[in-house]
Amino acid sequence: MSLLDDVSIVVTPNGYKAGELYAVIPVPTEGAEILSQPVDLQTDFVVNSGGVIVDADTFTSSGGAFDGIKKSGFLTIGKRYKLIIEGTTTSSGFTFGILVSGNEYGSGFGTHYFTATTQDLWIRQQTSGTTNITSFSIKEYTSADMDVTRATAATRVDENGLVNYAEILGSEEITNGDFVTDLSGWTTSGTNATNTITWETNGARIISTGTNIGLFQNTLIIGKTYKLTCDVAITVGKIGLDGATSGSTVNMVEGFNEIIFTAISTTFKIKRITGNDNCLLDNVSVKEVTRDNVPRIDYTGGGCPHILAEPQRTNLIHYSEDFTDTYWTSNTDVETPVKSTTIKSPDGNYNAWHIVKDGSNSKIAKVIGSSSVEYSKSIWARTISGSGTAYFGNGSLDSGVLTTVTTEWQRIEITSSVNNFYAVDFRGSSTLTEVLIWGAQLEEGSYPTSYIPTSGSTVTRNQDIFTRDGIGSLINSTEGVLFVEMAAFSNDGTNRTIALSDGTGNNLVRLYFSNSSNRIVSQVKVGGSTQVTFDITGITVIDFNKVALKYKENDFSIWINGVERGTDTSGTTPTSMNRLALDNGSGSENLFGKVKQLQVYKTALSDTQLAALTS
Predict the structure, then answer these.
(1) pLDDT in tens, 508-537
(2) Shared fold status for 313-461 and 465-614
(3) Which band of pLDDT confidence, cut at 50, 70 and 90, is reported for residue 90?
(4) Is 88 left (phi over 0), alpha (psi -120 to 50) or beta?
(5) Cβ distance 416 to 448 under 8 Å?
(6) CA-CA distance, 235 to 237, in Å (whole number)?
(7) What local confidence, expressed as pLDDT, does residue 435 receive?
(8) What are the beta bridge partners of residue 104?
(9) Which of 22, 513, 538, 565 is most deeply buried (CB count within 10 A of its CB)?
(10) CA-CA distance, 497 to 369, in Å (whole number)?
(11) What does the alpha-carbon distance between residue 273 and residue 566 come to, in Å, rounded to a whole number?
């Protein structure tokens, strides 16, 4: 019998969208309509306050904070639902929300998913007006796809080994962005005898001395976020993206440009900013982009990918990719850094900086932070040719370590409480005279995390949260197996947990990296009372380990990497488990680490099956 005959949930690094990591098993399913169709507001709902149900499709509201309509006693607590609601409103500044027990699960017309916390559904209209509902569908929804919450952008290493943002890109918004034969698709503005925009075989040439000289297309939707990429060759002056932010223009630099902007106009325009401009523009691409809450499928180290789940961190370095800015202290023994035009940086672009030693005191550094705080410092470095040693991170004068640098990019990582950050320090090295550097990061914490780009200020990446509620039908509280292949970032003295639970932490089955070094602990709780605990030592937690916890009344065991490491023949099993999450069952002790696979079984597997599963 195949293990897949018993598995009820399989989550691996596979498909995803913003806010959701897809499970391989089960395929999402929808139940029957809970309310008879078409829904009749007069029959199925009552007014909560401050309004009137006009007819089967329409209700009004006077605009109070709790005004709306309500359907009582028809949801099942703990189950997950899919609600599709469409319609129109006459209210100016209309605010529309779906509430269950005072918690708003969605806003606006469209499709919403939520887990019921009471039996009641409340639809509110917070501003006065009339709402007409043209369709209303609600069904039970079963899916193990995990909700992903981060609310900030974040980077990962992709399948090609490049450092980039995890993002969802839409279709191309620009016509003829590569200017293959002419300027067709573009409209020019402000041109005359001395201000010209002409086509060349490798792009659009802008020559101007006046203002508002540029070319544009009306393709954007106000309020949406877009990603612009283009190549710019500048002889003199500056050009930029006009209309990306209110009252200002986003400057472009020579070479490859990548700019994220939110449209404040339907017009996408590139124009002259200042100086006597003469530039060549090519390979213009604009696509809608989503970066917040996008799961990160990470390929660090090569081979099979893993799900990356990290804590909140802030890059305290203000200019992580520009070592010419006065933010950095560069002494006279270092030649002025220049961008490499022959070797790409770890993100695949020509934006690494070529640093050349020109004296005995050569270094580029920044004093930042407090000497009493533990920091993790990191930067990528490589040579042009050959190999040699230099100091990075702490530097030679602050207990730094000489690092051998070769022609391969490497991320150099140091953790200490020294508040000097050395992007590169040639002192003490007689073998290395030049180096390429990119991506400086200083973060408070005992280990480094994924790269956080900065360009003028600190930047914070929020923590990753992975949860799935309302899946009681996929979890057998009587018996089963929780299996995960995972690795920790370090022995950082915290509990990092994955659990099946009822959402309270009182009834749960969990596995976690312990706050003690190199230990994996598993635990079963019933009504807040611990039934079973396995505390396994001698595990290298920064390596990937395959761990399975079997639970069944008076029959518990833990298997790690093909070996049974503990058994217990006394204890009961929890009830009403309907939640799977990378936390301790109640929203804390998040699992910060790397996950290659996560599986839940509805039967207590045999020893032979558990050995095979964890081998």
Answers:
(1) 999 999 999 999 999 999 999 999 999 999
(2) yes
(3) confident
(4) beta
(5) no
(6) 7
(7) 95
(8) 99
(9) 513
(10) 31
(11) 69
Of 54, 188, 240, the closest CA to residue 132 belongs to 54
511, β-bridge pairs: 498, 522
CATH of 168-290, one of 3.10.20.30, 3.40.930.10, 2.60.120.260, 1.20.1250.20: 2.60.120.260
Contact present, 106 and 97 (Cβ < 8 Å): yes
Peptide bond before residue 38 is cis, with ω within 30 degrees of 0: yes
Half-sphere exposure of 437 (CA within 13 A, CB side): 28
Helices (H), 73-152: none
Q: Which two tokens stand for residue 336?
A: 């002025």
Lowest-confidence pick of 59-63, 395-399, 447-451: 395-399
Which two structure tokens, joined as six digits, stand for 7?
A: 């598995």
- Using CA atoms, how far residue 492 sits from 181, 264, 488, 496, 579, in Å, is 58, 44, 9, 10, 27
Which contiguous run of DSSP H or E holds residue 32? strand 29-33
Q: Domain residue spans in the chain?
A: 30-142, 168-290, 313-461, 465-614
- Provide φ and ψ at 462, rounded to 5°: -70, 165
SS (H, E, C) 267-289: EEEEEEEEEEEEEEEEEEEEEEE
100, β-bridge pairs:
103
Note the Cα 127 to chain centre separation in Å: 34
- Which tens digit of pLDDT belongs to each residue from 275-329? 667 889 999 999 999 999 999 999 998 889 999 999 999 999 999 999 999 999 8
Q: Is the pTM of this model over 0.85?
A: yes
Strands 248-251 and 225-245: antiparallel
Fold of 30-142: Jelly Rolls (2.60.120)
Task: Give the sign of the dihedral formed by CA 160, CA 163, CA 168, CA 171.
Answer: negative
CA-atom Rg of the chain in angstroms = 29
Compute the distance between CA of residue 490 and CA of residue 311 in angstroms, rounded to an integer: 12
pLDDT tens for residues 240-284? Answer: 888 776 667 788 888 888 999 999 889 999 988 776 678 899 999
CA distance 388 to 382: 10
The third-level CATH classification (topology) of the domain covering 465-614 is Jelly Rolls (2.60.120)
DSSP 8-state assignment for residue 383: -
Instruction: Tell me the CATH class for 313-461.
Output: mainly beta
pLDDT value of residue 127: 81
Contact, 226 vs 219, CB < 8 A? Answer: no
Composition of the chain by helix, strand, coil, percent to 5: 5, 50, 45
Using alpha carbons, select from 423, 420, 425 the residue that is nearest to residue 360: 425
Q: What is the largest CA-CA distance in the chain?
A: 91
pLDDT at residue 51 in the model: 83
* Tokens standing for residue 566: 């503990």
Both structure tokens of 574: 């929890």
Cα 217 to chain centroid distance, Å, stands at 31
Instruction: Return mean pLDDT, the chain.
Output: 91
- CA 10 to CA 8: how far, in whole Å? 7
Question: Is the model's pLDDT at 95 over the cut of 70?
Answer: no
Question: Both tokens of residue 256?
Answer: 């490859």
